[in-house]
Design brief:
653 residues; alpha+beta; 6-stranded antiparallel beta sheet; 19 helices
Length: 653
């Protein structure tokens, strides 16, 4: 019964999406304004219908209803409850259902822009979003239905990939989708702005909270995925330039450009056309990522690569979205007002350069990701593009971008003088030297590009701290009242200072981990010792263990002699589906992580890979700071919008 409820709810959601479009179209005809009042309730009803469908699928997983094909293929009665629930989106069909749910969730917040946008504009946005939802609902019902029945129902399921049975992967997809799909609503705003022939500061102000929410969620999703790869896959890496990883990183770069171009459009009315193009491209890149992991062109632990027909369906949606947006742009762009140009030495000038650099960086990663696929499709030749390509081309761009971020927040709008930034030089220089000296003292001298990146990250930290220091008043030569001073700073300034601080922290973590990591692989006997980063590990032996759906063998390693902490890397053997996994043991220290993973056994001995990962935790701390900065900016925008008088509906056009 639960499958039939879910199936019916999906069909109902498709009908509601089509009704939303119809109400918006009819409501724009003369004398039919009343239809526009139906658009928002229909969109909310669509969210309720998709929520019912999602809950029906989760119920099927929790109750191990193996009469549902999707549940049988991806679950097992022995699976822990958390992974039964999250397993609902740990496969292609369920993940697409989650995709549509997030899409409808964002639509439900569009009516909250009523203080900025009139009813007609909101109806346009919801109609575009409903069109996207209808396309994906049709895709789910026609080619990816998660509620297909299996008769007779098996007594047991096949189980979920053990690598996905992890808390990190339980929450990684929802965050990633909140990011990917969040850019759909920004696209909907852009399309609506083109239809209306209006892209001004007010529309940009309405778009920014959605762009910030999507960017923050995508930052957290990428960070969580990177952290999961670090501790779960057993190889100790946090980024491999894997095509699936790149598929999320490319829209992140475009999204970073978008949130900055939206600021310029809101503050100065400039970059309006570019902002609309960027909104389209960012969503298109998110769709491209969805296509890559579902079309069968990639093989990865987190790729649902089984059915090229599904990829073609998504490719059709991607093509339609791009063609529609650029056709609208060609048709309606002449109606958009042209803003006055900006001077190179100004904040908007710096943000334009920031957009150029981010766009080029996204293009570099895109080419490196798609080139091997295109070559294989055209010639049959298989090649891989690895870290050397990305580091060589992306690294210098990142360094230039860092240098720009150091100075951009201190520039004035409209016009500034480069000489005025002289006040920043001593602080930025001191920050650069301090960061470089600290890293060199702890780990040694890095390479030229790495040293430059660390120095600029230090300068960026000093630049971000200068934002807070400037607001800290002096009384009789001494600073006092820090809490009150921080309270007086506008929330949006806290936001970008925190986001830029997070970027600097992540850069230091990446560069240190890549430049100074050490690793050794040895065969250890019980009682034997291993030196790692100046610390001594003693192997005490192997110990069996058992979990809810696996058995394991753990190696026991005592750190720093008797009484020291015990590290227990393990090998797990799952039985549904049969698969072995490596569970790393990680010991954080002030300078980095001691990382242990065990391999094959030889009698009582075991193969040990022992690594030291300098400052690696800073990567995820920085991602958290960046996402927090984005969320603070979101709160700032929502507060600002709440203080506005609602848009006058009679002025709608």
């Amino acid at each position: 019964m639960v499958a039939e409820i879910g199936h019916f709810a999906l069909a109902l959601a498709l009908g509601l999406a089509l009704a939303t479009i119809a109400a918006a179209v009819i409501g724009h005809r003369p004398g039919r304004d009343g239809w526009l009042q139906l658009v928002a309730p229909l969109a909310r009803a669509g969210l309720i219908a998709v929520t019912i469908a999602l809950m029906a699928l989760v119920t099927g997983y929790v109750t191990s209803d193996f009469s549902i094909l999707n549940v049988w293929q991806n679950s097992h009665t022995a699976k822990p409850l958390l992974y039964k629930i999250t397993g609902a989106w740990g496969n292609h069909e369920g993940s697409m259902l989650l995709w549509v749910w997030v899409l409808q969730l964002y639509a439900a917040f569009v009516p909250r822009t009523r203080r900025l946008l009139d009813l007609r504009m909101r109806a346009k946005v919801l109609a575009v979003q409903a069109a996207i939802a209808a396309a994906f609902l049709l895709f789910i019902l026609a080619a990816s239905n998660p509620f297909l029945r299996l008769d007779p129902a098996p007594l047991e399921g096949r189980g979920l990939n053990p690598l996905l049975q992890d808390p990190g992967l339980a929450f990684h997809p929802p965050l990633l989708y909140l990011g990917y799909v969040g850019f759909s609503i920004v696209y909907a705003f852009a399309a609506a702005a083109l239809i209306a022939g209006r892209m001004d500061a007010i529309v940009a102000r309405a778009m920014r909270p959605f762009a910030l929410a999507a960017f923050s969620a995508l930052t957290l999703g990428i960070g969580l995925g990177s952290w999961w790869a670090y501790y779960e896959l057993g190889w100790g890496g946090f980024w491999f330039w894997d095509p699936v990883e790149n598929a999320s990183f490319i829209p992140w770069l475009a999204g970073a450009a978008l949130i900055h171009s939206l600021v310029v459009t809101e503050k100065r009315g400039a970059l309006a056309r570019w902002t609309l193009v960027l909104a389209t491209i960012t969503f298109a890149l998110a769709l491209l990522g969805t296509f890559l992991v579902r079309s069968g062109v990639l093989t990865s632990v987190h790729a649902f690569a089984v059915d090229p027909r599904r990829g073609l369906f998504i490719l059709a949606i991607l093509t339609a979205a791009i063609v529609a947006a650029f056709a609208l742009l060609a048709w309606r762009a002449p109606l958009l007002e042209r803003a006055a140009g900006c001077r190179p030495v100004s904040r908007e000038g710096a943000m334009m350069l920031n957009n150029v650099l981010l766009a080029v960086a996204a293009a570099v990663v895109l080419v490196g990701t798609l080139y091997p696929l295109a070559l294989e499709a055209l010639t049959g030749e298989k090649i891989s593009v690895g870290a050397p390509y990305f580091v060589t081309l992306f690294g210098p761009l990142a360094v230039i971008l860092l240098a720009l971020v150091v100075v951009a927040p201190h520039l004035r709008w409209k016009r500034d003088a480069a000489g005025r930034l002289a006040f920043l030089l001593p602080r930025a220089g001191l920050g650069a030297l301090a960061a470089l000296a600290a890293v060199a003292a702890a780990f040694g001298l890095p390479g030229v590009l790495a040293a430059l990146a660390i120095a600029l990250a230090g300068a960026l930290i000093a630049s971000a701290l200068a934002e807070w220091r400037r607001a800290w008043p002096r009384t009789q030569g001494r600073r006092s009242g820090l809490r009150e001073a921080l309270r007086r700073i506008p929330l949006n300034r806290h936001a970008y200072a925190l986001a830029h601080l997070g970027l600097a922290v992540t850069v230091i973590g990446v560069v240190a981990a890549e430049s100074f990591a050490t690793e050794k692989t040895v065969l250890v006997e019980p009682g034997a010792g291993v030196e790692v980063a100046g610390r001594r590990l003693v192997f005490e032996g192997l110990e069996p263990a058992i979990g809810p759906n696996y058995t394991a063998v753990a190696g026991l390693f005592r750190l720093d002699g008797p009484g020291g902490p015990l590290l227990d890397p393990a090998r797990r053997s799952y039985w549904a589906p049969p698969m072995e996994t490596t569970e790393a043991a990680i010991r954080p220290t002030p300078l980095g992580d001691i990382y242990l993973a065990i391999g094959a056994r030889r009698g009582d001995a075991v193969e040990l890979r022992a690594s030291f990962k300098p400052l690696v935790a800073l990567i995820w701390l920085g991602a958290l700071l960046m996402a927090t900065g984005g969320l603070l900016a979101l709160v700032s925008r929502v507060r600002l919008a709440a203080r506005r008088v609602p848009a006058r509906e009679e002025n709608a056009s």
